[in-house]
Amino acid sequence: MNGGAPVRMLSGDAKNPIWSPAGDLIVYAGRFVDGQVPLFGARPDGTRADSPAVRVREGGYRFLPYGRGLVYLERLRSVDFSLLDLATGDRRPLNRLEDRGRLQTFDLTPDGKTIVFDRSQERSDIVLIERPLTTAC
Question: With a threshold of 0.85, does the pTM exceed it?
Fold first, then answer.
């Protein structure tokens, strides 16, 4: 960022990196398998950071303010959020939405108290209309 040459930090699959607000941790996704990606951590100098074995939906993770925790979506079709405490490795659900839908993306407010997300539902009725066969004269 200071005008120097780029430096490779990691090798292998490393997608959707996000920097912690404290600037001391980068969380990124590994290889996409079965609708989920494993999360990994690295320090700004490129050394790996210890991280709990967490699999999440690709792109579905955000840091809390001050980098204390990570809010994430576990599965591709998940609309329920979970929280990973980065200090202890503990995980806990944050909500339980009864009315399912499809969630595209989310973000956290700057104070970390509110999750802002979109959700859509498909409510189509499928009807089979059978018409009698007619014979050509």
Answer: no
